[in-house]
Design brief:
mainly beta, OB fold (Dihydrolipoamide Acetyltransferase, E2P), 2 domains, 14-stranded mixed beta sheet, 1 helix, 14 strands
């Protein structure tokens, strides 16, 4: 049986095919939170109201370093093309071991122009002059990615309601219903000095 945090990360790692309701990435700051309702000031300037359950799953982030990435790790990365056939990371999330091999692949992402999200298993790690470099594999595809020194590398842990104080940064895969309303069961919240980099 999947743990709640594992279930949350599976949603973040791979947006499913659009259905009704449809998943929408939401980034912003908490305006207010009470059990049953969360208001987020999105980066677009809009304040989004989300219906949330009483037992909302709140996920914290733990700071890691490129040196913590090891062969066999499951990762979810956001990156942009480096102009040489590889990628430059914008963030690397080290996922629980139980996620290895699940929801692997690469898809367009909206973190930056031309950015992609890659969910894969680490097959190699090297150190180069301008930062660490990882090789990832999903299916029969190999992907090389450079990790600059200033790029956040994180893993995940449990959080609590204290993380949803006004002004806290959050990342949410919100479900938008046909009538335009939003809901979510899980929130990744600013924690340990880290703002969600997804």
């Amino acid at each position: 049986m999947k743990t709640p945090i594992l279930a949350a990360l599976l949603v973040v790692a791979a947006l499913p095919a659009f259905a009704k309701p449809r998943p929408v990435p939401l980034r912003g700051e908490v305006v207010t939170y009470t059990p049953g309702a969360l208001h987020v000031a999105a980066r677009t300037g809009e304040v989004v109201e989300l219906a949330v359950p009483q037992n909302l799953e709140i996920v914290s982030m733990i700071p890691r370093a490129p040196a913590d990435i090891a062969v066999g790790d499951a990762v979810s990365t956001t990156a942009v093309p480096d102009g040489n056939g590889g990628l430059t990371a914008l963030q690397v999330s080290i996922l629980p071991a139980a996620m290895a091999g699940q929801n692997e692949g690469q898809r367009p992402w909206d973190a930056a122009p031309d950015s992609v999200m890659t969910n894969a298993t680490i097959s190699g790690v090297t150190t180069v002059n301008d930062g660490g470099q990882i090789t990832m594999k999903y299916g029969d595809q190999d992907v090389t990615m450079t990790i600059p020194d200033d790029v956040p590398v994180i893993s995940f842990g449990p959080g609590d309601e204290a993380l949803l104080a006004p002004g806290a940064d959050v990342f949410i895969i919100a479900m938008q219903a046909e009538d335009g309303t939003f809901s979510t069961n899980r929130v990744i919240a600013e924690s340990n000095g880290i703002k969600p980099p997804m």
